């Protein structure tokens, strides 16, 4: 379903100093606003944000958010990146929070690359190389 917004921990699994969560799709910007309150982010600019639980308003983490509008993004869709602390607690809570958002789901393996290919951002050779 290419109309669904997808997300993934793009920085890889395991304990790390920084965890990068990437969202791609039409709901990416609205998810950013719901989780951080940032409604009109500057394009390709790192904004300091506080991520809060949508319902309880509990603070999850303090980090950076970047917005890459389609069609000028890697996937050709609106893309949001959240650069947060890489603790297990933060990563686990973010996966839960993002999974609970309407029309948002965990990306399948290679799905960001497939969307880039589908939107003409990569040719087949480049997509296979990734």
Notes on the structure:
With 130 residues, this protein is of the alpha+beta class. It has helices at residues 28-36, 88-99, 111-118, 124-129, and strands at 5-9, 18-24, 47-52, 59-68, 79-85, 104-106. The protein has a 6-stranded mixed sheet, with helices on one face. Strand 3 and strand 4 (59-68) form a beta hairpin. The protein is globular, with a radius of gyration of 14 Å. The model has no long low-confidence stretch (mean pLDDT 88).
Biggest sheet, strands in spatial order?
3-4-5-2-1-6
Biggest beta-sheet profile: 6 strands, mixed
- Cα-atom Rg, whole angstroms? 14 Å
What class would the helix/strand composition place it in?
A: alpha+beta
The count of strands amounts to 6
Relative helix content:
25-40%
Which overall shape is indicated by the principal axes computed on the Cα atoms?
globular
Low-confidence stretches: none
Distance between the termini: 21 Å
Mean pLDDT: 88
The arrangement of helices and strands along the chain is EEHEEEHEHH
Number of helices: 4
Instruction: State which percent range the strand residues make up.
Output: 25-35%
Keywords:
alpha+beta; six-stranded mixed beta sheet; 4 helices; 130 residues
């Amino acid at each position: 379903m290419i109309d669904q917004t997808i997300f993934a921990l793009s920085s890889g699994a395991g304990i790390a100093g920084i965890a990068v969560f990437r969202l791609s799709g039409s709901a990416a910007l609205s998810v950013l606003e719901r989780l951080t309150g940032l409604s009109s982010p500057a394009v390709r600019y790192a904004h300091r944000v506080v991520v809060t639980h949508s319902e309880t308003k509990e603070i999850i983490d303090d980090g950076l958010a970047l917005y890459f509008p389609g069609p000028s993004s890697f996937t050709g869709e609106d893309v949001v990146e959240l650069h947060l602390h890489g603790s297990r607690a933060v990563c686990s809570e973010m996966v839960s929070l993002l999974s609970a958002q309407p029309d948002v789901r965990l990306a399948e393996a290679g799905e960001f690359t497939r969307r880039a290919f589908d939107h003409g951002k990569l040719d087949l050779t480049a997509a296979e190389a990734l």
